Every structure is written in structure tokens, then in C-alpha cells.
Amino acid sequence: MGLMIRTLAALLAATSLSGAAMAAAPLEAYGRLPSLSEVAISPDGTAFALAATIQGQRMVVVKSINGPVLASAVVPFTKIRALTWADQDHVIIEVSRTDSIDGVSYTHEAFQAASLNARTGAFVQLPTKAMDSVLNTIGGRIQPAHDGAKSVLIAPLLATVVNNMQDGGSHLDLYKIDLDTGIASRIVMGDSTTYDYLAKSNGAVLAKASYKESRTRDNATWTLALRRNGAWTDVFTATDTLKFPELRGLSPDGQSVIVDTWDAAKKIWRPTPISLGDGKIGEYLGPAVDQGALVGADGVVLALSHKLGGLREYDFLEPRMKAVWPAFRNAFPNQSVSLVSWTPDLKKLVIHVEGSRTAGDYFLIDTETKHIDQIGSSYSQITPADVAMVRELRYAAADGLEIDAILTTPKGRPEKNLPLIVLPHGGPEAQDDIRFDWWAQALASRGYAVLQPNYRGSTNRDNAFTEAGYGEWGGKMQTDLSDGVAFLAREGVIDPKRVCIVGASYGGYAALAGVTLQKGIYRCAVSVAGPADLAGRFHDEILRYGEQSYLVRYRKRSYGVTGDGDPKLKTISPAAHAGNVEVPLLLIHGKDDTVVPYSESQKMAAAMRAAGKSVEFVTLSGEDHWLSKSETRLQMLQATVAFVEKNNPPD
Questions:
Q1: Mind listing the pLDDT tens digit for each residue in 288-343?
Q2: 335 in a domain, yes or no?
Q3: Which long-range contacts (CB under 8 A, 24 or more apart) does 277-280 make?
Q4: Range of the domain at 426
Q5: Are residues 524 and 566 in the same domain?
Q6: What is the torsional sign of CA 599, 604, 609, 611?
Q7: Is the Cβ–Cβ distance between 468 and 401 less than 8 Å?
Q8: Are 389 and 409 in contact (CB under 8 A)?
Q9: What are the beta bridge partners of residue 144?
Q10: CA atoms within 13 A on the CB side of 387
Q11: Are both 415 and 446 inside the same structural domain?
């Protein structure tokens, strides 16, 4: 893990080189979890914390930049979600596990935290105990802070006041947790509507966000409250059926919190400062597009981000970063560059670069010397020569709506008469962009072109484009995909007789719909955790969460139905049309999926067999919705590739 020093000029020259053609990397190189991830730099810039996969084990390693490993720990959970330095000695490890608590919570993805002392090697669960009846799970954002001279973790924990949280008998309270003992003590009590807090690095609580369902109207109210003189003052509310703001963080000058407010003219939620002093709402920040936020461990919003031409771009709010960033960003043209960690003085930055030239490399930037030092690669077995070309394209849907998409093509082959895999993203409110997509790249390495359309309903444009997907499951969202196939066929890029569809989550639904609600387009289909029985799933969600809940309101709008008895649900449910399937179908599902239940694929398999159709079904034992385990992620990839190679040979 040594560093290779490069000057900015040398790096510019190096990144312009293209790799020579060579044999494709093995599927294991793409399918297993990254060998290096979650790189975070220490506050003084002398060490890294990182997640590594070593001989199949997930570990957290703390390493001096120019010297030895300082500490390491085998994490008892495979799902390491984030690493954060609390101070120069302590690294906070966020993990998750799929679990339920009898009489308290349904099976869900529960987040927990631990502290690794880089000086002593001590590993402490956070919290180990508290004075209150709290669950040992984290209920939102965590923030390292200082309690006098001692470092602590400020974290929201769920406290129970009755036996069953499923009946609303819980509240989200804010605690400070000692990093060496794990003992938690409450700072502020919330209630059953509280879901987010914001504090300063000195431990002072600034704000909280609440979300309250209406019991008489089909909507909910979001409220921002500021902490003043030991009490809460409501300063901003928004009531809507589906869309609601987000508490982003603290402004760099420390004078405002940044919250989304609704821009009625542009019809989009936009980041906006609200003064901590008087609660006044300021001017919108950044362009009128869908924006993300780059928030530090201290809760400060360093930058806003948006996508441009399939690449992430930052609008820095911090003036020093705004001045120095362009030179480093321009060192990696046409690549996706993410700022992932930085020292408080902004003298050292860690970036992650991925795209058509790399499977993902971490670099250390010294903003004073202008050096860029390579830390390591996310996928150590994948060389630049293994990375297929990725580009953005645009085409018109049947109704004239412009759709943009990401096209990945096999290395060393011209874009002519290629076999195609359509790989729609999940969500559906998500998007694909120009990054290293391990799944798309693995398929391209086997000789396939891969099309990833940002169909209507995606989040790559404005609110109107996202809402254009409402009511279009199995409809125009589906034909947006096949319109992309037709476009590539007209351009001569692909052979329209050699097309399969593969996807996960909503993408899995689209794969099922592509061979049940459509005909003659795809030679085979692979659904990974795809919903198949929308009526049954919706009915179960209503029983669990109630008619007056955000999820149920979202489902009604998303499906375009009035309730779980709406006949349209059967019309757009693949399981109800299994008899229409005329091509090979593979179902893959994680047994521990808490987002799309494993039973959805069971229902589809049963419907296929009842219709006299053959179907293949692969169970991923112990796997969740996000393919978080290395072994089962690889199992999914191997099964998918074997299936498409058999039913749609690349040559």
C-alpha cells in the first residue's frame, strides 16, 4: 500500500495513455467486493483509515502515510458502510446488519458503530451501555465532537417507551458516546416524529428535523427546529404528499443551516441557507438542478454537487476549495472525480477517480505543493486495459421525450453489430452516470455492449422528469428502454436479434416486464430482486405501515393506482402474465432482502411453473438487497454471465 508520488503535470500525461488490448480480467475481479474502499485521512494528514478485503476478510486498517500499519481490526460484520476520524486516535466504523428485534422492530437493515483506537488497537462498540432504554442501533447521521478535552461521538439512538416500536412507541434521542468506554449519555430528547439532528463540533446542538404523518389528510408535514436557550423553535415547515426537504448541514461560515426549500418557479427543491440567528430564509444556492451535498464529519456543507454530461461536478461553498479545486479536477478529464475525505485545514484531500480509464483509484492531494500521490486501487485485479469505454448518449422516446443513457462497449471492438445487455438501474428514482460500474464492466468484458438508460422517473434531470415516471411502471418507463434498443439498432451499434435484459430491484422488475408485458425484444431476462406481484407487495406494506404513510402514498403515485385493490396492479404485475414469457428467465434473490422480499421471486417462479414455463432460480444465502457480501455478489455475477452467454452468445 505504498504511495507512488506523481506531480500534477506527470499525472496529466499518464492519464492520457490508453491501455493495450489484453485478455479480460476474471469475473472474480469484478464480482468480489472492492479490495480497497472508504479511504479517510486523519485530521493531521499523517495517516489513512481504510476498509480492505484481505484473504476474504473485511478489515479496517489504519496506516501511516509514509510508514507502517498502526492498527487493524477484523470487523465482525461484512458490511462496512463508512469510516470517520473522530480525532487523531479514534476511527469511527459504521456497519450494518440485517436483523429484527423481537417485539420491537421488523426485520430491517440496522446500523451500528464501533470505535477503533489507532494508538492502542482497542475496538469498542458504540454504545456499550446507556442510562436509558436504547437500542444499540444508530438512527441517523453521526458526528464526532469534543466534550471539553475529550472526543465523543454524537449519535441519534432509538429509545423505547413501550414494548413495541412497531406501534410508534419510540423516539429518536441524541446522545454523546465515550469513544473508549462506549458509555452513552443523552443530550436531547426527541419524539416519535424526529428523524435527524445537526450539531457543531463542540457538541452544541443546532437543529433537528421532524416528519409527521397526518391522520386526517393524505399528507405529512416536515419541520425544521433550531435549538435556542435550551429549547426548540420551529422556523420552517413544508407540507406535501410526497416531496419534502432535507436538512443538509451547516454553512461553512457557521451562521446558517442549509435546508431544501421549494422553488415554485423551477418546480424543484433547492438548497437554501436559514439563519441560525433569526431563522430568516436566504437565497437559493447553486443551479436549479437536482443537487447533492458534500458534508464533512463536522456537519459542514463543503460543496453542493450536480451531474453534468454524466459526470459529477462540485459547486464549492468553501472559498478556499473553490479556488484550488479546478486544477486538480482538470487532471482527470472525462473521468468521474469524487472528493471523499479532507483534513480540517483543507491542506490534504483524498479523491476517488473512476471512468473509462480506471476501475477506481484513490489519490492524495497536497493543495500546497500541488502533488497528487496515488494511494491504491479499488479493484486491484483490474488494470486500465480491462476497463471498457463508457460514454453518454441521447435518444428520443416514442413520445418524443429525450432520454439520456450510458453505453459501455467491449474493449478493442468497434461499435458495430454488437450483442447487447440492457441494464436498467434500480430505484426507480436513481440514475446511472459515467463511473466504473462493476456489473456493466463485467458484462462488457465478456463481449457485450451494455445500455443503461436513465428512463423517465430517474433523477438525472429535474423534478418534472422524475414525476414523468409516475404511473408508468410497465408503461412508458418500460418502452423508454426498448426505444433505446431500437435507437442503437438504427445506428448499427447492436444486433437487435441479440439483446437480453438484466436488472436489480426496479431494474429486476423491468427485466420481468420486458418478457411478460412486452414481446419480441429480448432473447433472455435476468431479474435480481425484482418485484413481481405488485398488488401483494403493496397489500403487505399497507398492513405493516398503515394507509397514512409516506411509503403507501409513494406507491400510489408511483404505480398510478388508488389502493392495493386497483385492477391496474394486476395489469402491470409480471407474475400475473407469466404465461406470456417465451424466452429463458433467470431469477436471483437474496434471502435477507428487506426491501423487495425474497417471496417476490418465489411468486414469480411459482407463476412460471403454473403456466408450464421453465425458470431458473438462484438463492443468495445471507445476502441483502444491495449485494453487500463478496461471495454472494460474485455468485450473482457468475450465474448472470453463464445464463446470458448460454442464451445470447457474444460471438
A1: 888 889 999 999 999 999 887 778 889 999 999 999 999 999 999 888 899 999 99
A2: no
A3: 279/226, 279/233, 279/235, 279/236
A4: 388-532+583-647
A5: no
A6: positive
A7: yes
A8: yes
A9: 153
A10: 26
A11: yes
